[in-house]
Amino acid sequence: MSSLRVKETMKKLDYHTPLYKDCIYHIYNRANGKEKIFFTEENYIYFLKQYAKYMGGLVDTFAFCQLSNHFHLLVRIKTDKLKLISEGFRKFFISYSMSINKQEKRSGNLFQRNYKRKIIEDKKYFLAAVYYIHANPVHHGIVKDFRNYKYSSYNSLIGDKGTKLKRDEVLELFGGKEQFINYHSEFRKGGLMDNPIIEDDER
């Protein structure tokens, strides 16, 4: 599938994996130490607003999840001007950090310095990554059923309201909305899969 194209030379993955146009990545980052990055409902909304402002023209977004001290994104790079990507993420993180610093009367870096990314190698990995991102609140003991979690893309992807997510493309890769829901339900029954390639040490 062209949307899941992977550079053939990339055999090993790490936190400094290069970003290539048309490739899909699982991107995640967390707060410094044991701090939080979200304190109020407005923070979750503002985070997505700033993400859309700085990254909307640079990436396509398939899925996301925001947790109190970290976040996950599943994106496709839309440009080969990688300096624009780096600058976009830098401005996004700085903008959000400045808002939280002002709100919480704190100073310094809110996020860990380097955001992490894993390239999505094929359709199977893509489907697993979408599920993993949506199931993360259960994985961390925040909720018992991820379908009830407000701050992920799950309900937006199965809903009918307008969205900036690549909803149609995601559902097509799963084989339709019903198959998307069934895929999540089957994994939910069995618990989160043990997939160190996705999970690594981001917890």
SSE diagram, text form:
Layout: E1 24-30, H1 41-55, E2 59-67, E3 70-77, H2 82-104, E4 116-119, H3 123-139, H4 154-158, H5 167-174, H6 177-190, H7 196-199
Helix pairs in contact: 1-2
Question: Would you give an account of this structure?
Answer:
The protein is α+β, with helices and mostly antiparallel strands and 203 residues long. The protein has a single domain, classed as Transposase IS200-like (Alpha-Beta Plaits), CATH 3.30.70.1290. The protein is built from 7 helices and 4 strands, in the order βαββαβααααα. It has a 4-stranded antiparallel beta sheet. Helix 1 runs antiparallel to helix 2 (82-104). The two termini are 31 Å apart. The model is unreliable at 5-14 (pLDDT under 50).
Assign the structural class, choosing from mainly alpha, mainly beta, alpha/beta, alpha+beta, or little secondary structure: alpha+beta
Number of helices: 7
Quick one: overall form?
A: globular
The domain tally reads 1
Which strand-content bin applies to the residues?
5-15%
* CATH architectural type: 2-Layer Sandwich
What portion of residues is helical? 40-55%
**Full CATH superfamily name:** Transposase IS200-like
What letter string, H or E per element, gives the SSE order? EHEEHEHHHHH
Number of strands: 4
Question: Under the CATH scheme, which class?
Answer: Alpha Beta
Mean pLDDT: 88
- Give the uncertain stretches in residue-range form: 5-14
Separation of the first and last Cα atoms: 31 Å
Q: What is the CA-based Rg, rounded?
A: 16 Å
CATH level-3 fold name: Alpha-Beta Plaits
Strand order of the largest sheet: 2-3-1-4
Main pleated-sheet profile:
4 strands, antiparallel
